[in-house]
Amino acid sequence: MSLDQTVCEDLKAFERRLTEVISSLQPSTLRWRMLLGIISICTAVGAWHWLTDPNTSAVSFTQSLCNHPFFTVASIVLVILFLMGVHRRVIAPSIITQRARSVLGDFNMSCDDTGKLILKPARNAHPHES
Questions:
Q1: Are 90 and 29 in contact (CB under 8 A)?
Q2: Distance (Å, rounded) from C-alpha 110 to C-alpha 79?
Q3: Is 47 in contact with 121 (CB distance < 8 Å)?
Q4: What is the residue-wise DSSP string for 69-128?
Q5: How confident is the model at residue 2 (pLDDT cuts 50, 70, 90)?
Q6: Residue 38 and residue 42: Cα distance in Å, rounded?
Q7: CB atoms within 10 A of CB 42
Q8: pTM attached to this predicted model
Q9: C-alpha distance from residue 112 to each of 59, 69, 95, 116 (Å)
């Protein structure tokens, strides 16, 4: 095998692995996005009920939270999710592709959101020479 064929095979193997890694993250990312969306909606609905309750201003803060367990639990779960790093898990594939693009840029390459390699035109080392 020539050097060009070896390089081409290496690039194809790298592209296959990159697309495999990104596609394997998609189901997990979708589940985290759904969970974060549901908990965010629950927190917003609970907050609306908590804030529009006329008794909220008449009782202590802790008592008002006890009067609205849906909001309290949803808020606690949302805080726990963010402490666990759900915000990073939700965008994990884009983090991987951005880091890959950063490294591939040194080799006049890039990749799309699925991990497919994009070869850029070669840069001229000395553009003003004739």
A1: yes
A2: 36
A3: no
A4: HHHHHHHHHHHHHHHTTHHHHHTHHHHHHHHHHHHHGGGTEEE-TT--EEEPPPPPSSTT
A5: confident
A6: 6
A7: 17
A8: 0.71
A9: 55, 45, 12, 6
